[in-house]
Amino acid sequence: MAYRKIKYNSDIKGVYVILDMRTFAVRDLRKLDYLLSEQVMAVQIWDNNLLPNRDLMISLIEVVHQHNIPILINNKYELLQDYDFDGVHFDDIPNEWNTINELLKDKILGVTCTNDLNIVEWATKHQLDYLSFCSMFPSENNTRCVLVDRELIRCVQRQYKIPIFLAGGITPQNMKLLDGINYVGIAIVSGLMKADDPKVIVNEFYQALNTNYENKYNT
């Protein structure tokens, strides 16, 4: 198995695609293949207790890997034994962390953080690859997340060196409100695979991300 890593670029921000498997079907594999490009930093299969059958899961992973993009599973680390996932994104600190270290060796590891510095400290102590702050804005998918205190993110960045993704309610239109936060990319899920042309949506986010970034640092 190849060990893929998220490719960070200090000059370019990227998109982290989260797939909602409640609506993902075989017909969406072609759409997924079409939308993946260098604009996408990683793909995550969201843990909503409805995962695809084995054949579809294998095909989905293969499609993502054809683009040399890492794919992560949300929470269900035990699936690393059965599928070629490149890592795990945890919604919380796993209770069984000390017993699963060997399984997670060489994998990409990330965790969601809202306003809890204990999670930040845990993630940096155990050298996780990134933090995801959620939710930045109200969102149809933020049933778990509360709104993030942006000053806390700035505090984290002053104290720690760890890549940060932002998620929750972000649109190309409100992205300018994130100025002042140094982040590597944003995560999107809402309605992506339902769109007639999801590549257009990814490109809109990518262009907004990097237009705002260039304007901020080149003026």
UniProtKB/TrEMBL annotation:
The keyword Phosphoprotein does not apply. CDD domains: TMP_TenI. Pathway: Cofactor biosynthesis; thiamine diphosphate biosynthesis. Residues 16-192 form the Thiamine phosphate synthase/TenI domain. PANTHER family: THIAMINE-PHOSPHATE PYROPHOSPHORYLASE, THIAMINE-PHOSPHATE SYNTHASE. Keywords: Thiamine biosynthesis. The keyword DNA repair does not apply. This is Thiamine phosphate synthase. It comes from the Bacteria.
